[in-house]
Write a structure and sequence with these properties.
- This is Putative tranposon-transfer assisting protein.
- This protein has helices at residues 6-15, 20-33, 39-54, 57-61.
- By secondary structure, it is an all-alpha fold.
- Helix 1 (6-15) crosses helix 3.
Length: 74
């Protein structure tokens, strides 16, 4: 299985329901609501869905879905 990119993991964190099937359903729903100018996001969603489809529920359970961002300190 291909590894997920940082962008895919961050997207998955936003829509994670705790199950692979729930996450996939959430991503599929969002993909249907995208405007044509959001093609880059649509590609990211499709890439993540392809990888999620190829993995098992057990493999999904081993993922650590924590957003990768750095908090700025004033």
């Amino acid at each position: 299985m291909d590894r997920f990119s940082i962008e895919e993991l961050n997207l998955m964190c936003i829509y994670d329901t705790g199950t692979r099937s729930g996450l996939m359903a959430g991503l599929e729903k969002i993909a249907l609501e995208l405007a044509p100018e959001e093609a880059e996001l649509a590609e990211l969603i499709q890439s993540a869905l392809k990888k999620l489809t190829a993995m098992s529920d057990q493999e999904y359970g081993e993922l650590i879905l924590v957003p990768d961002y750095k908090e700025e300190v004033d």
